[in-house]
Amino acid sequence: MKKILALITTLSIAVLALAGCGANNGASSSSGTNAVAQSSSGMKTLKVGATAVPHAEILEKVKPILEKQGIKLDIVEFNDYVQPNLAVNDKELDANFFQHEPYLKNFIEEHHEVKLVNAAGVHIEPMGVYSKKIQKLDELADGATVAIPNDPTNGGRSLLLLEKAGIIKLKDGVNEKATLHDIIENKKNLRFQEVEAAQVPRTLDDVDAAVINTNYAMQANLVPTKDALFMEDSTSPYVNIVAVRAGDENRPEIQALIAALHSQEIKDFINEKYKGAVVPAF
């Protein structure tokens, strides 16, 4: 009888142990399956795709702000400019933060199935005009050489910046797709040297001025607010934005994300962290 009772006890313990293991496995599986919608603590999860610098860094600072509102921010990092838009469109992400609106518009033109919109602008990575030979743009001599990026997006952007600086004049109605053929006024007979964007900083020793993207300017130890003779401001169409699916702009979680990104805390972080290389646009 004692042996039978011992056997029953042993079997009972084994069954309980197996049940415990099954419960733990179920919790892990459930947590993984429901992470996108809601965590076990009742917090809503918001998945946002971003490139590493500065976008993901900024979002990391937003995390505790949203957490206080019951929203868990899940940052998914990307190293390309195609997948983040496709992932939002396919509902794998709730939003993304890596691009400016001209890029988004061009992307939609090339991918008609994508239905994304600009939910809010956050910051600018300002393109600037730099020189090692002059201190002011009006010192450019007749026939001076100016280096600009040779790709369509950055090339057009650089020409718009030069027009805003009063150096050239473009045809009415041209936008970020402007080319050298769209210049209708060039009073100083400037010559333009088109160079791969990443190589433009290296031309500074040879040209009179160069229009440089912020990320490449930073690699060359240039700071836009300190070293640029002229730079984009918050009215630039190249404000980096949060993109969402059309119709999701007013979702409470998206609105909370935008409010956090537009907070004084985040503005101070951007100013202190990037020291002018990234400029708040709010």
Low-confidence runs? 1-36
Q: What average pLDDT do the residues reach? A: 86
Rg over C-alpha atoms, rounded to the nearest angstrom? 26 Å
Q: What is the CA-CA span between the terminal residues? A: 81 Å
Count of individual beta strands: 13
Determine and state the CATH class of the largest domain. Answer: Alpha Beta
Number of domains: 2
Order of helices and strands: HEHEHEHEEEHEEEEHHEEHHE
Based on helices, strands and strand pairing, what is the structural class?
alpha/beta
Helix content: 25-40%
Query: So how many helices?
Result: 9
* Adjacency order of strands in the biggest sheet: 2-1-3-12-4-13
* Overall morphology: elongated
Strand content: 15-25%
Biggest sheet features: 6 strands, mixed
- From the 3D structure, determine the CATH topology of the largest domain: D-Maltodextrin-Binding Protein, domain 2
- CATH architecture name of the largest domain: 3-Layer(aba) Sandwich
CATH superfamily name of the largest domain? Periplasmic binding protein-like II
